[in-house]
Here is the input.
Amino acid sequence: MSLAARYLEEQGIPTVVYGCARDIVERCGVPRFVFSDFPLGNPTGRPYDEGSQRAVVRMGLDLLVSATAPGTTAVTPYEWSPDHTWKERVFTRAQPFLDPEATQKWLTRKTQYRELREQGQL
Here is the structure.
């Protein structure tokens, strides 16, 4: 998405990227970014929560008008749930949403990523 946004911007088409991985998206250098502290894959809110989804999309549209510099990030005020235990479940070995083979692939890739990062290759 980040590369597509940058290409569209070069062509004169303003963009807003919605996402949940703030460090990754900001590192890619998108022009305008709406960050939601939600599980990956849910950048505009909880499923079927039309009110907050509309508000998040509206934040992005407002950001098109109000951003004064490249790399502007707006942070949504919404929470996925009152407690933040979902974050603990997502970033543990348990990975309740993956089957055993997918979990092993995830753990292998996570180890590879850490090694590359420690070596300064990322």
